[in-house]
Amino acid sequence: MVIDALMAVGAWALSNPLEFLVGDTLFTWVFYVVMCSIKRAYDADRIPKMLLPFAWIALGFFMIADTLFNAIPGTVFFWQWPTTVLFTERCKQNKLRSDWRAVEARLWCSKALNPFDPSGVHC
User: Fold this and answer.
1) Would residue 21 be called left, alpha or beta, if left means φ above 0 and alpha means ψ between -120 and 50 degrees?
2) Where exactly are the structural domains of the chain?
3) Roughly how many angstroms between the first and final C-alpha of the chain, as a whole number?
4) Model pLDDT for residues 28-74, shown as the tens digit of each residue
5) Which of 1, 22, 33, 82 is most exposed by smallest CB count within 10 Å?
6) Computed from CA positions of residues 66, 68, 90, 103, in that sequence, does the dihedral angle turn out positive or negative?
7) Which residues make Cβ contacts (< 8 Å) with residue 118, sequence separation at least 6?
């Protein structure tokens, strides 16, 4: 059943690549913002003990979503094969370059990631 669902999503993604890129980007970014909120609550010791396991499960799902985002849309956005598992690491690596990828990485960090990180500096 799960494999059938993944196959259906994969077939849809191949037939609608632009919609997939936009949808996956929005999904992963919203998930990232939610995880930053959970991190804020965790750091403030505000997550009830009975909900803490769900927060860890959500983190696990987010790591999977971020890995897939880095592998597919990240490859398209940076026009390079991934050398890291997570998108943030790709941005950190590309910020050190001196080409258009550095500009794009700085844009991702300053506009989409850093403003929502509890520390203010995600990458």
Assistant:
1) alpha
2) 2-116
3) 38
4) 999 999 999 999 999 999 999 999 999 999 999 999 999 999 999 99
5) 1
6) negative
7) 36, 39, 40, 43
